[in-house]
Design a protein that fits this description.
single chain; Jelly Rolls; 2 domains; six-stranded antiparallel sheet
Length: about 425
């Protein structure tokens, strides 16, 4: 029965939904219940909210056709429509990747009898393999699918966390930038005939812009951000109980939507890398996610950076959470309230309009109250931008920028720290 058929029972198991002829295969190994790295590439170019018609679910360029239902619903799911195309098979592979753990594989056959093993990964709804996908299950699968959307079809690694017991919390130092939180229910229209598909911004959503992800110029994205400011933390989303370095790992509830269901407990927070990837999914050395060239990465030493305050010690330090490579510039200040500065070599020649970015990491107990990037202009004058620490996330990487003013040439850049006491701060991947 791998031919054409339409499934009309919402409580069918995942194995049954894939049709007769599917074989469930147990594999060796145990799924890790900690935060899991994943790969987003779920491109939805052409996604229509009313009817959820997808033609663009892709990883590295292959696209999907075959899903046209009210939400991503088993009711109306055309199994043959999926298995008869490369894109349809990929869509099912994402569903299985979200639902089942690493040690589970479902094999489905196309109309010619060719087998396609589809492996689980995140394990958010293992009960769906042989049982029903209830409302909670639907919301977890929806959050997972939304978290994997990439409207450019780019193959970008991400790290996903949530309070699902099969997923877990945590922060991976290889994924230092909190992008956003995703939630909703793709399995049905709400009472105003729209699909509940939502997200809100993390502090890094627009800092390390990744092609096809939020913060970039997405076309045809399936989700909406209805918060006035856009940010999860400014709109009452409930942070996770789990923390890393004193900072919550993500959000366990957000309230958003125009339907009867607006308080979402099945949320997935995405952390991403600050790396540039080419069309083949390979990291591009010496570039950040938004394509900027890294000018100072502090891998070998302090790269000629200095401080005029003897109590501010600069060292090239190793730690796994570096933005680029494995080392960063550590600013270690052990005294009282003061203003201290660190500066690049004074031999630069930056044209007017050049935007310089500094990636900064503050400890959760930092006593800093301002972080102010500056640029010195030829002739000795200085241009500075003031950033209150209240605008950045402690215990995470943030970005501060400054632009060389019109009519000027920048000869030196640096960062001014204003503090009420001792602090450590890390600087990495200075770009322009």
């Amino acid at each position: 029965m791998c031919g054409m058929r339409r499934i009309a029972i919402l409580s069918l198991s995942l194995a049954a939904a894939l049709g007769a002829g599917c074989e469930s295969i147990a594999e060796e190994g145990q799924a890790d219940d900690s935060a899991l790295a994943s790969v987003n590439g779920l491109s939805v170019n052409g996604l229509s909210i009313n009817g959820l018609s997808v033609n663009g679910l892709s990883v590295n360029g292959f696209s999907v056709n075959g899903l046209s239902v009210n939400g991503l619903s088993v009711n109306g799911l055309s199994v043959n429509g999926f298995m008869s195309t490369d894109g349809g098979r990929q869509l099912l592979s994402y569903i299985i990747k979200c639902a089942l753990p690493d040690n589970r594989t479902l094999t489905k056959y196309d109309q010619y009898g060719n087998p396609y093993p589809m492996q689980g990964h995140l394990g958010l709804a293992p009960e769906w393999e042989n049982g029903i996908c209830d409302e909670t299950c639907k919301r977890w699968i929806s959050a997972c699918m939304l978290a994997h959307v990439n409207t450019a079809g780019a193959h970008i690694p991400i790290n996903v966390v949530g309070q699902n017991t099969h997923l877990g919390w945590g922060q991976d130092p290889n994924y230092p930038n909190q992008e956003g939180t995703f939630f909703g229910n793709l399995f049905a229209l709400n009472n105003v005939s729209r699909v509940d598909a939502y997200y809100c911004n993390g502090p890094g959503f627009d800092k390390d812009v990744v092609e096809g992800r939020i913060g970039a110029n997405q076309v045809g994205a399936p989700y909406r951000n209805m918060f006035a400011s856009g940010y999860c933390n400014l709109n009452g989303c409930v942070p996770s109980d789990a923390k890393t370095n004193g900072v919550a790992d993500g959000y366990k509830q957000c309230v958003m939507g125009e339907g009867p269901m607006s308080a979402w407990n099945e949320t997935i927070t995405v952390w991403r890398q600050n790396k540039k990837y080419n069309a083949s999914g390979q990291a591009v050395a010496g570039q950040t996610a938004d394509g900027r060239t890294i000018r100072y990465d502090f891998e070998g030493d302090v790269n000629g950076w200095t401080s005029g305050n003897a109590q501010l010690v600069l060292t090239s330090s190793y730690q796994a959470l570096a933005q680029s490579g494995t080392r960063f510039l550590k600013a270690d200040y052990a005294s009282g309230a003061s203003t201290v500065r660190m500066s690049s070599p004074a031999s630069l020649s930056l044209a007017a309009g050049t935007e310089v970015s500094f990636y900064l990491y503050l400890a959760a107990d930092s006593k800093l109250y301002q972080i102010n990037p500056f640029v010195k202009k030829a002739g000795g004058n200085e241009w500075k931008v003031t950033n209150d620490v209240s605008s950045v996330l402690k215990g995470s990487w943030n970005v501060v920028t400054i632009t060389v003013p019109a009519g000027a040439t920048g000869t030196q850049v640096g960062v001014e720290f204003r503090t009420n006491g001792a602090f450590n701060a890390y600087v990495d991947a200075v770009t322009w």
